[in-house]
Amino acid sequence: MLLSLVAASSSAAEVPGLELFEKRIRPALLEHCQRCHGADKQQGGLRLDSREGWMRGGDSGPVIVPGKPQESLLMHALHYEDLALEMPPKGKLPAAILEAFESWILAGAPDPREHHGEAESDAPPTVEQGREFWAFQPVDEPTQPPVQNTTWPATEIDRYVLAKWESAQIPPPAEATDEQLVRRLYFDLTGLPPTPEQIRQYRRDPSPAAYARLVDRLLNSPRFGQRWGRHWLSVVRYAESSGGGRTLLFPDAWRYRDYVIDSFNNDVPYDQFLREQIAGDLLPHEDWQQRRRQLTATAFLLLGPTNYELQDKDVLEMDIVDEQLDTLGKSVLGMTIGCARCHDHKFDPIPTADYYALAGIFKSTRAVIHSNVSTWNTAPLPVDPAQQAADDAAREKLDRLRKELASAEQQLVEVGGQVKKPGGASIDPKTLAGIVVDDDQAEKVGEWKESTHTRGYVGRHYVHDQGEQRGRRRVIYRPELPAGGTYEVRISYTAGSNRSTRAAVQVHHRSGQATVAVNQRKVPDTEHGLLSLGTFVFAADPAADNRVVISNDGPQDGVVIADAVVFVPVEDVAKTPASDAAQARQQRRKTLAAQIKRLNDQIKKLEKRLAARPKVMATTDEAEPADIPIAIRGVVHQPGPMVPRGGLQVVSQDPFPAIPARQSGRLQLAQWLTDADNPLTSRVMANRIWQWTMGRGLVRTVDNFGSMGQRPTHPELLDYLADRFVDGGWAIKPLVREIVLSRVYRLSTEATPAARQADPNNDLFSRLPRKRLHAEQIRDALLAIGGNLDDTLEGSTIRKGTRSEYGYQFTSTRRSVYVPVFRNRLPEIFEVFDFPDPNLQSGSRSTSTIASQALLLMNHPLVMDQAAAAARRLLERPPEELSTRIDYVYRQVIGRTPNPSERQVLQRFVSEHPDGPAAPSTWADVYQTLFQSIDFRHLF
Amino acid sequence: MLPSLSGRRDALKTLGCGFGYLAAAALASRTNPAQAAAGGVQSVNPLAAQPPHFTPRAKRVIFLFMQGGPSQVDTFDYKPALAQYDGDMRRFDDARVLAKTKEIKSHRVFRSPWKFKRYGDCGQPVSELFPHIAQHVDDLCFLKGMHTDGVAHGPSTLFLHTGSINLIRPSVGSWVLYGLGSENENLPGFVTLQPSMGNGGPRNYGNAFLPTRYQGTAVGRAGVPAEQARIRNLSNPRFSADQQRRQFELLRSVNAAQLAQHGQDQAMEAVIQSYELAWRMQEHAPGRFDISDEPEHVRRMYGIDEKGTDDFGRQCLIARRLAEAGVRYIQVNYGDNTNNPRWDQHSNLPQHATHAFNTDKPVAGLLQDLKQRGLLDDTLVWWGGEFGRTPYAQANGTGRDHNPYGFTSFLAGGGVKAGFSYGETDEFGHHAISGKVHMHDWHATLLHLLGLDHERLTYMHNGRPFRLTDVHGEVVREILA
Fold first, then answer.
1. Among A3, A198, A910, B378, which is disulfide-ready with A194 (CB 3.0 to 4.6 Å)?
2. Are A912 and A753 in contact (CB under 8 A)?
3. Which CATH number do you get for residue B383?
């Protein structure tokens, strides 16, 4: 109110500071600030082109406090006082301008610029507005669409599609030929081509049920899971390395791959499948197999492309959470949740608060173990009870042995021995006999550098003189002796080749001092590992000046080390050289030393065995799950208000299930996602199943059901499928079966003129979309036709001893789903034939036609090898007519009988080939050419 | 019919998604059989050259990637204070220490072991590491206020190439090819010579969500001599020329017969064309990588056949040959496959001399050769690493740690001021303080020089338009000639 009065009545001359504003501030703002904080851009949410702009401020609040430059964020930024906030970014403004800003703010920061007039319509949709959007509406009860032609539909699906044709006046189009249909079905359901025998077998069966029988046979083949599992693996960006800069192998990722393949083969209900992947570690289980399954499933959350090398670990954790949310959002909900990390989603009703509600759940979930280069979380693989019992016994035994070892070591110390820890860098002073004065407790004169470089030092470290300033550095050890008497003085130093050969050590005792020159290159040849300087008599009265001084007075031929000095009462050493007691003690030391060695060996063996226990990538809840604050603009170090954990408000009006104390909330999230009333989960998956059979989704943007995605071409059909899916207990195979049994699936890929006219983009499925074979199908087909496809199921397939994906040679002939998927290295055939980038969540693939595909099929050894192998197999067949042989080869590669002109071209080639029609090289040419041909790579 | 200019603008406005959408739509229509059918089948190369947004200053880019992070204070950013305070312990906000511990600690100021001298009419100081490049300073434009994101090699290398540390984004070369297409039908439009397999590897020349045709073509890889570097599968390892031709003729006949069955269909035509292009590449591309026809004096200019400089010299010469042939984006890599690549002298800073020696003469040779042939006018040369190095010793040792806060890159040709230096770092060469150019700003400027507006070069993916500079980047107008 006050400000507006001032502004209303002001003119430049009357209001102090306003002139300054016009002369200096307005031009400076215009030149240096408004490009990023004006009408075009609002970096950090801030506008500086109006008074209202800076009063409201940006993400960090108001930037100017009138009258108080010190409290104004703007001045901090202009002065470059905070590394994270230096404005303008291109360079600090001249001092004169900074002074002007200061005076202006001191004068109350008068600013005559009016409201900048923000367009309200730019605001993102509210949650309430968002619920109106089709995707968030409840799934409709299916109603049978009315059709005129009641004879054509064979299934419900057909009615929905036909109804659209009828309104577009498209007559039912032609169906595919038997040959086309068989090839289509084999590739779609198993990813492999039918053999000529399988084609003949189907064509010979006149029964109307033949087609359904084939469908069932293929659905029940283990190859179904290999093909369909691969679809899911792309959706969830499956890979066997972390990608990013320093890419790390995921040696246990294959277990997740096998879990997915198994789930498709066993038709695990989709809701259960999701619950296991999101919260498998938290689900109850009846036996170890179930526990193993469920734990393995959670690798879903850990398989992301992650830069484990990132040095700011807070940022790393939030990046992982972001990646998990992004993948979960797109794959399960068809939502780009990630946008809301930094600001309310621009297009979809997802406020930033929803993002952090979900993020809190994953922040409460342990996914990463920190180190300079961090790693993902793992758990021991659940094993059968017998092995578990054996492992438990081994662990118990290990505990027992460790206790025995500790006791033996204690006894050894008591009889004057010293414990040498195998591989241990540091010696615990408590394990040494006598009074220990470590370098920590000693007085140092001159500069002594701490180090832990050489192993075998007492306590936390040793110190050294850096080989400098000879004669000017010393370390003085003063023991607190319990009583006067004779002590043996021992010193420890970490021997090494760069050490002094004559380090000067003085011992000040009751009757004077002695100097010993110590060769610190030599390892002391004593049982206790320390060097004995001799025995000396020390007084115990407070006036006594008992000390040992290590100095660098000696010749400077190496560094001088000062570690610990130990005073061992002589009665603890051997009293008389040959006494029985001493001999007994020495004998005891020997026995103990042998026992310690034996124990150490046993322990090492057990540790090794337990370490070899297989692991699984898995999540677990953090010890202290909690809500998290909004990170302003997505910057982790700028916390905003706290948000209770939960789901997306727009999806459900019901409150999110309560999260019990000390739980992350993943279990509740999994329940919320798979609730039958969640309209997205069932629609998104039903759409994917349609896409994986029909070639494209009813919603073409299969990963995006938001406002920037496409609308369903057949909303009623989509809801029918989603409803069937949930009603059928979320089983996938029955839905696939229903789709491939429809007449729509059996349509020809050729458009009729009427269809082309009325439905140019094939929105109405007036022909089946023609599919280009996927990279995996091309590779598998080559190997199958060459007779070299290795049919082994399951298991780890990264070559043993592989440390890095760089330079990895892909020589396996296993099915493509088992070829390791590295984020920075893929088989060439995958690269050129559009295998989805495993760094990206992607439910659909691009299809490119590029020269490097041609070059690969022309020149790559894999292709030539399979062509040659196929030719050799062909020539093993009984003699047959050339045309019969050509037909066979054509059916083998293209899946159909050649037409006369195709047959003629090949016949002439074979007859005129210089190597002759009986040569394998001739037929290898034929095979390789057909591999390259247009029809091989397409499904008609 | 082509839409009128105003129609196109309206379309942009109503669609609200910019150039990328139209480009994508145009490309889609080229391969969409239904749309092609109306106008008859045309032979369209989806990579054909396309007009830029506005008049370009450069037609192509040669990027000389100095992997590992060359030190600015030992090369081009002369800091007398380092000698003055050599050995002093001073507080520096070290990027790595800060990220790990959020603390500021003391470090030992470390003078450059190399002497600097002023060169050229512009008087640009250059250290004795680069005696040959120093001769060209009047053609160069130095960016001494560069700064970037990330502290480790992986993140910063990806950031340099893709504008993102952790998200999967197309590389600069892919964006350029997407925006401009290629001028040569027989060669790939984006070539990276002997790229490193480390620190992001293929992601540094990957197309990410852009169509596959925009991916960079790797020729050889780091660690394999330039002499053996080839495009993959470009020649048949087993067949004679006769055998190949015979098979190719058969393929033509088979494909023609199959096409006849399906009628006019552009997707199928495209397959046939991909073979024709592959065949032409087999014929023409190897020649571009074979330098045996280059005269002796040219080879000498690049340091070819000389110890140290031979390998990088060959790469630079091939880069010139590719530039001549109209390849749009050429990256020359001085790198290796380790986690501490080439210029990464955490200890033993004097090793910088080896890397400088290996690259100095080849780079100078390339500059001279491009200039002599008039290619420098429309070729933008960019020299630089993923970050710079600290002006103080790392852990008080004998090397320098990574420094993303301030470092130097240099440019030549294609529309940048010659004999010019822009920006500066603080007294020690640690932070850029004026004329600051963030990597995003440089990306924006690079696209600008090629006639592309970085805010309009977008691609729709996952329901929103993406661009190289995300929501950042300012064109550095101060360096435009």
1. A198
2. no
3. 3.40.720.10
The one-letter amino acid at A272: Q
Does one domain contain both A546 and A650? no
Which ipTM value was assigned to this complex?
Answer: 0.72
DSSP B326: T
- Is B247 contained in some domain? no
Q: Which domain-ending residue is among A534, A550, A572? A: A572
- A90: CB partners within 8 A, 6+ apart: B145, B434, B435, B436, B474
Would residue B353 count as lying in a domain? yes
In a domain, B280, yes or no: no
- CA pseudo-torsion sign A383, A387, A393, A398: negative
Tell me the nearest-neighbour CA distance from A883 into chain B, angstroms: 16
For residue B300, CA distances in Å to B139, B226, B319 come to 21, 16, 16
Alpha carbon of A502 to those of A505, A553, B447: distances in Å?
9, 9, 68
Q: Do A901 and B257 touch (CB under 8 A)?
A: yes
Our CA-based measurement puts residue B264 at a distance from the nearest CA of chain A, in whole angstroms, of 11
Q: In terms of domains, do A421 and A538 share one? A: yes
| Contact between chains at B208 and A837 (C-beta distance less than 8 A) | yes
* Domain's final residue, options A76, A97, A122: A122
Q: Do A932 and B208 touch (CB under 8 A)?
A: no
Please indicate, yes or no, if residue B104 is contained in any of the structural domains.
Answer: yes
Alpha helices, DSSP H, located in B266-351: 266-289, 296-301, 310-324
List CB contacts (< 8 A) between A859 and chain B. 233-237
Count of the separate structural domains present in chain B: 1
Domain containing A897 equals: 861-939
Cα–Cα distance between A298 and A282 in angstroms, integer?
Answer: 10
Its pTM stands at 0.72
In a domain, A187, yes or no: no
The answer to whether residue A406 sits within a structural domain is no
Question: Could you give the number of structural domains in chain A?
Answer: 4
**Alpha-carbon gap, residue B480 to B450, rounded angstroms:** 12
Looking at residue B90, what DSSP letter applies?
A: E
Of A245, A807, A938, the CB nearest to B200: A245
Rounded Cα distance between A544 and A567, Å, is 15
What secondary structure does DSSP assign to A215-255, as a single string? Answer: HHHHHTSHHHHHHHHHHHHHHTT--SB--SSS--B-TTHHH
> Going residue by residue through chain B (481 aa), what tens digit of pLDDT does each one get?
333 333 333 333 333 333 333 333 333 333 333 333 333 333 456 678 888 999 999 999 999 999 999 999 999 999 999 999 998 999 999 888 887 778 888 899 999 999 999 999 999 999 999 999 999 999 999 999 999 998 889 889 999 999 998 778 999 999 999 999 988 878 889 999 999 887 888 889 988 888 877 888 888 888 878 887 888 898 999 999 999 999 999 999 999 999 998 877 777 887 888 898 899 889 888 888 889 899 999 999 999 999 999 999 999 999 999 999 999 999 999 998 877 899 999 988 999 999 999 999 999 999 999 999 999 999 999 999 999 999 999 877 889 999 999 999 999 999 999 999 999 999 999 999 999 999 999 999 999 999 999 999 999 887 778 999 998 999 999 999 9
Q: Do B271 and A306 touch (CB under 8 A)?
A: no
- Whether residue A829 lies inside any domain: the answer is no
Report the DSSP pairing between strands A485-491 and A531-538: antiparallel
User: Which chain A residues are within 8 Å of B161, Cβ to Cβ?
Assistant: none
What's the domain range around B409? Answer: 60-226+311-479
Instruction: Give how far B45 is from chain A: nearest CA, Å.
Output: 10
**Residues A746 and A175: beta-carbon distance below 8 Å:** yes
Note the helical H segments in A502-579.
none
Task: Give A337-352 as a 3 state SS string.
Answer: HHHHHCCCCCCCCCCH
Strand pairing report for B400-403 and B116-119: unpaired
Same domain, A358 and A440: no
Q: Are A209 and A217 in contact (CB under 8 A)?
A: no
